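QA checklist item 7 of 12: single-chain prediction sanity check.
[x] sequence parsed
[x] length recorded as 121
[x] structure emitted
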Amino acid sequence: MIYQCKTCKRYFYRKFPIPSGKSYCYKKAKISDVVLVSKDWNFISNMINNYNTSSKWGFTTEELSTLKSRFSGIEESIFDDCLTGTTCILINNKTRIYHCDIITALKCSLEKRSMRAGELD
């Protein structure tokens, strides 16, 4: 389930609903300040696929950093592992990482797991 903190505006993932009285926001917001955004990953996929990038081909490292700042709980080592060896494109001396690879890396890092065989492209 994807939640958003109304205090810091960051998104975060929880496998199960948040228990009453608990907070998982990095700013320790009250449970009343956390809202359920989506019960599946379609929200994240749509956000990334419709993200305003400078090229339709994918994200630059700067755009990726901005996108990642909107999420709380990203496991950086898992995120980087998922992007290792992915196919990229070079446009105007800037590497572009494809949207589908960002979706997979974000999903794995928020769920704190390695990439599955079926998620390799």
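[x] summary fact logged: Helices lie at 42-49, 61-68, 76-83, 99-111.
[ ] second reviewer sign-off
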